[in-house]
Amino acid sequence: MAIEHVDVLIVGAGLSGIGAAYHLQAHCPGKTYAILEARPRLGGTWDLFRYPGIRSDSDMYTLGYSFKPWVDRKAIADGPSILRYMTSVANDNKIAQRIRYGLKVRSAAWSSAEAAWTVEAEKAETGETVRLRCNFLYGCSGYYNYDEGYTPDFPGRERFQGRFVHPQHWPEDLDYAGKKVVIIGSGATAVTLVPEMAKTAGHVTMLQRSPTYVISRPGEDKLANWMNKWLPLKLAYGITRWKNVILGMIFFQLSRRRPEKVKSKIIELLKKQLGPGFDVAKHFTPSYNPWDQRVCLVPDGDMFKMLRAGKASVATDHIETFTETSIKLKSGEELEADIIVSATGLKLLFLGGMTLSVDGKPVNQAETYNYRGMMYSDVPNLVTAFGYTNASWTLKADLTAERVCRTLNYMDRHGYKQCTPRMNDPEVKPEPFIDFSSGYVQRALADFPKQGSKRPWKLYQNYFLDILGLRFGRIDDGVMEFAKPRASAATTPEARQAA
User: Fold this and answer.
1) What's the pLDDT band for 495 if we cut at 50, 70, 90?
2) Contact criterion met (CB below 8 Å) for 6 and 34
3) Which of 38, 44, 220, 454 could covalently link to 104 via disulfide, CB atoms 3.0 to 4.6 Å apart?
4) Top-level CATH class of 157-224+255-342?
């Protein structure tokens, strides 16, 4: 039986996958492609997470696609609005019809003789294995485990008699109206949940081991809304996008070069927003510098309003044990709870857990080097979309898709079938894939590829540098090896079909 073949196989129908499909259609119109999605719907993160108040922590003028203007008034958008935006892109560009749902990719095997990947996916409904072949494999499944989030081994958890939930799998029947809620964590999910749940809960306590940098930002971009009214839509979108990119980069660079000054300014603003009597030093002054971990965004100061109103509070302490009705802290304080939410982060997972092999040899991704933030040493015709840690994910995903299309067109012009980054520079030193001190990153780094100490193996987390390198840099850069493997008569598609 013949195995279906496409030129490009995209894994994942989230922000990256839909964007990749658009770029392929626009810039490589002769290429056939399909998208495999493990879930029953498109959307990725924005379909999976259903917890109260789910929203972006980046503005939609940079989280949105370069080719699709964001027209809603809110710059910091809620999850359902983002999902509608993605769905409209998929439907309007006939991408949705290329998505095959309920197929979880388990493995991919590369054959140099055939210049093709054989991909095995598992049907969610039956467990049946489905095989496809492609010349180019494009991983757009993100970087975390969709099946489960990270939950620490809390002492005494089994004793707790109330509801215990993780935001990654929010129960539809959870009624928190009038209830005492404790949210464990201090990251983006926690600072989103606190103000939303506090609207109807009896009281919400955010319990953190250590503080996180939190800054307020207007939920609407007034300048963008004004330009949308008076300027052509694409022009207004482009101006706002670049304005926000530049402001974000300035903030990041200042944080790196003058961390104490930036830290002092953030704390000063927090004191004004929280008012006298709130212990900002204890609850909102981290021990690390800004952008050593991601800075959390509070649109329109919503969490600060709930703290000032007494509807929410912050406890900075360590957990000693859960009891039947509370969390007992090491300080001796006890937090009563009807509901405990473990907003304790994600589990990172490279390529969605897919196993790889090249010419029969298993690939250990931890031994590979990341090339330009998108490919891997000695692994042919494989690209993954990874966004920025210090800016919107889609900025980098868009640039990666552009580079993929440039590479495919270059290979077609020269008759190449295979492209492989080769690490042949003895001066390159290994560095961690992500330079972030967050716990969820540190727990998984050993299983991720390395980056190198110099270009093109270095991840600079810099949009301007990536524009130069990915959009305008040479395809044949002396590091990428191109080849024209000749399939034997026994391994051509025609021979396999006849067999």
Assistant:
1) very low
2) yes
3) 38
4) alpha beta
